[in-house]
Design brief:
Length: about 425
Amino acid sequence: MPTLLPLSLRPLAAAALLCAGGAQAQETFKIAYIDPLSGPFANVGELMLNHIQFAVEDINAKGGVNKVPLQLLQFDSKLSAQESQSALQAAIDQGARAIITGGSGSSVVTALVQSAARHNQRNPGKEVMVLNHSSIDPELTGKACNFWHFMFDANTAMRMKAISDYIKTEPSIQKVYLLNQDYAHGKQWAAYGRSMVGAARPDIQFVGETLHPIGKVKDFAPYVSKVKASGADTIISGNWGQDMALLLKAAGDAGLDYRYFNHSAGGVPGTVLAVSQAGKGQLTWVAEWHPGQANRPAADAQAKAYKAKMGKDFLSPRIDITVRFLAAAIQKSQSTDPLKVATAMENMVLDTSIGKVRMRGQDHQLLLPQVVNTIAPVDGKRVTAGWEGTQWGFRTDAVIPAEQLTLDSACQMKRPERL
């Protein structure tokens, strides 16, 4: 690690001493990770960081990109737009050319994208890209789209479409309660749930709707009481991290056996354990892959390699894909200039552990399949392996190809003047 770098940067994969003949330090392509590493969602931030670190170190072990190593810097967003913007400036000052983020929520990522865009406009030739792995507000690739932003996850509308298509085949679902975190994504998840599920199943009754503070509720019993009083059999909730775990606990403690529909909670550490401890309820979520999914040998192999190296479970191929896509675009453009790299990334098709995926040039939305799956007890048939030390794993309910989820975009992309 260069001794002049501030300790707060803590480079994870510097590789800065790779040099010609060992006499001169070679250039690195610096990537800054900005996501929560403290507070109620620190475990989520660490999960994401580990996936990125694994990909960076794997690429560097194979010689880097065009013989240029990647260098990973890390910053704690603290789930704050202000902290994230300060981290962005610090990252730029240290020479970062790409920012990887997404776990801090849509409002924080939107602020980061706006700040990066302002910097890029004022500093042509010194631009920075924002690669978003988990913040799925459709506006980020819709009306608020920006040339410097790329989304590597299916957005909220795409995920809810996958769930709605599945709910259409489940007549047992009759009465739905919308219980969500009180911020942009929670409100969107509720709105898309009401509109898309309602369109897919006009017979369903929406019997209640509540928003609660994000990351601050310690006991969800009062909220569960409201759900019970409504007569609901199903909860559509965008909760994640401790907010989902505590909701499951409260419902389980009350002996309530709800069906939950969520965007990504099953991919967060502790969720399977929370479901098993609750003992009641079925959590159905949607992602690009789930552990143990059939007919995904490349993902299985990557999961084993990740476990062997990191000592943790591999959960999110899309986060790994974010780094691989960046490396492929650097390779394709034969440049480390973010403008050339971003241009190369547009409409790129990459063969990944979950199959071929494409970055749509129109709005910078990655098009990838979605798997509707449910956390369920191991039965030796559809669920063959336990997770997080439990006898609960993942049951595939439906695999929906990307083309079936490709929705229209309102993006009117403004391209940089120096293109």
